[in-house]
Structures are given as C-alpha cells and as structure tokens.
Design brief:
The chain has 341 residues and is α+β, with helices and mostly antiparallel strands. It folds into 4 domains: 66 residues, no CATH class; 70 residues, 2-Layer Sandwich (GMP Synthetase, Chain A, domain 3), CATH 3.30.300; 60 residues, no CATH class; 50 residues, Roll (SH3 type barrels). Helices cover 35% and strands 23% of the residues. The longest helix is centred in the last third of the chain and has 29 residues.
Length: 341
C-alpha cells in the first residue's frame, strides 16, 4: 500500500494526496511546494505521511517537490495583497467590453506566475479578447474560470441563517446532494426564503440530520394513517420524534396526544384509507417485475387459446347466418316476406 501525505491548497478545500518520498519528516502545518495539473502550487500539510489503501489513490500519485522556504511564504503574502486591485482592473475591462459576467475573485499563484479570475455567468462567455487585454496589463499568465453560485458563496463567504459563518466557507470541503425531500422529512416549512442559503440553493445543513429523521420516523405510523388506540380508532395528524409522541384525531373529532410507548404494549393495526391503498398498490406494481408471457402457467395459456378459437367459430357462424338471410330467395334459403308476396 502506498504512503501518502495530505495537502490542502486553501481553507475548506479538498485534501489531495502526494508522495512524500524524501520528506518523511513532514508534519501537519508544514508548507510544501507540489506539482499539480495547474503548475506549481504552495500547499499546507494536513496529515503526516501515512499508508492508505490503493483504492483511495485516483490517477498517478505525484511527489512533493520541496519544502516551502520563508521567501516562498513572503512572496505568497505579497501577491495575495495585490488580488483586490487586480479584481478592480478586471471589472473595468469587463465593462469596457460589455461582457455579461460577474467577477467573484482574483487569485495569484504563490510566485505570481499565474493570475486566475473566478466569475459567474448565465451563459457561455467569449472572453478571449479579455484574456489578451489582461495579459498585457499584468504581464503574467491569465486564467478565467466559470463557477456556480454555490462555489461563489464558498469563495466570498458570509453569515448563514443560524448566525454563524457559512459552512462551505469555514469547514465544508465537498457539496453533498440536497433535495426538497429532506426538508419535508424534517417537517420544515417549504418556504424558499427559509430553506435556501445565500447562494439561492437549498441549505447544505438539511443533509446533516436527515439520516436521524429517517431512522427515527421508521417506528412511527405515517401521518394520515388510521390506527387503533386505547381510546378507539384515530387518524395520525402530527408526529414529534423528539418526545416520541403523536397527535391523533379520534372518530369523535377529539384530538389527543399519545406517547408511542402507550401503543407498543398492545397490537397496533395500521389501517389505510383508499388513497393510501392506491399508493401502496402502485409501489407494489413498481417493485414487482412485469410478468413475461412465457412465464404464465401452461393451463392458463391453453384456456385463453380455447376461448379465442371458440370466439372465432361463433363469429364465422353468425356471418354465415347473415349471408343466408340476405340471399335466401336466390340460393334456396328461407324466403323473406317480400319474396313470398
């Protein structure tokens, strides 16, 4: 199994593995220079050299080039102070060329050999002329990278609904999938203003406790189900998984709150209304694979075949009778009243 060292290139960013060959004494907090797909980068050690399974390594494992010197750190700090001025100049160029893009951040490499501008846009933007203008102005390699709204919030930062710094900007390294179903699972109001972050997307924190809600609700009957209680039949109208209680509307229109333990001591039968039965039947139909014709019993197929043959014979018999009635006088059949007269 390979020995690796974890390196991070910014706050709340992914950790990448590198080969620490020749630098076995690295510890967390040290700064190193490594070779990446974008060129040489200044990174910070997050984990000392350790062994990981081969499955955790994606692609070719690159090596640590060298330890960062004090001059590397001074250079990095000096160029980072120039990023705000570079962003202002780039915004002026964007306005001059009337490009429909919103600049988010400018970022220098540690030695100033590359200047990257991050921007958002609704459509693809042809910024080739802008790159040429910026290269003439800053005398370095220019890169423009289009990002999404969630990445924009991660770069800019801010304060969330909870009053704390944004998770994505402070500690969250990856964006996990978030769905509206998670908000429903936690009985949150489906108001976009309350369940959306400053990026306009669903709150990342909706996924933090979703697994707990799913597990906790498994032992409760679903809202809308009819169950047997010590006070008679009733319909579940609300759940409180923290106090393990349910609000039940009895047949007498009285709403009572009962603990789940009060029902576990006796047989509880969940009765489904017509709508729920239709939903469950639909789920069963989706879960069961469609039956092929060749899988049907032989006796059932033979019955269907006999039925079809009997139907075809009866149709032919009725057709012959109709023909005989129409041409009865000419062909010697029964005469109609008109022919008799």
């Amino acid at each position: 199994m390979p020995k690796v060292v974890g390196v991070r290139f910014g706050q709340a960013t992914k950790v990448y593995y590198f080969d620490p060959a020749g630098f076995e004494s690295l510890v967390a907090g040290d700064h190193v220079i490594v070779d990446t797909a974008r060129g040489r980068e200044l990174g910070k050690i997050t984990s000392a050299p350790h062994i990981v399974p081969q499955e955790d390594i994606v692609g070719k494992l690159k090596s640590v080039m060298r330890r960062a010197t004090p001059w590397d750190l001074v250079q990095s700090e000096s160029f980072s102070q120039k990023e705000k001025d570079a962003l202002v100049i780039c915004k002026e160029k964007v306005v001059e060329q009337r490009l429909s893009m919103k600049l988010v951040r400018a970022e220098y490499s540690f030695d100033g050999s590359r200047l990257t501008f991050f921007f958002t846009a609704e459509k693809r933007v042809d910024f080739r002329a802008l790159v040429r203008e910026l290269a003439k102005t800053f005398k370095t390699r220019i890169e423009l990278r289009q990002i999404g709204v969630r990445d924009e919030a991660k770069l800019i930062g801010g304060i969330g609904h909870c009053g704390r710094p944004l998770c994505c900007n402070s500690w969250l390294c990856d964006f996990n999938p978030v769905s509206i179903k998670m908000a429903k699972q936690q009985n949150l109001p489906l108001n976009p203003m309350e369940i959306s972050g400053i990026c306009g997307r669903l709150l990342c924190c909706l996924s933090y406790e979703n697994e707990f809600y799913v597990e906790a609700k498994r032992k409760f009957p679903k809202v809308g189900k009819t169950i047997n209680t010590p006070q008679g039949k009733g319909k579940v109208i609300a759940l409180n998984i923290f106090s393990e209680t349910m609000k039940i509307e009895l047949e007498s229109d009285v709403v009572v709150e009962m603990k789940f333990d009060e029902l576990t001591g006796q047989p509880v039968r969940v009765e489904q209304d017509d709508h729920s039965q239709m939903e469950d039947a639909g789920d069963q139909r989706r879960d069961v694979a469609p039956r092929r014709k060749e899988d049907a019993p032989t006796e059932e197929r033979s019955k269907k075949k006999r039925h079809r043959s009997e139907s075809s014979r009866s149709r032919r018999h009725r057709s012959r009778r109709k023909k005989s009635r129409k041409g009865g006088g000419e062909h010697g059949g029964r005469s109609t009243p008109a022919s008799q007269s």
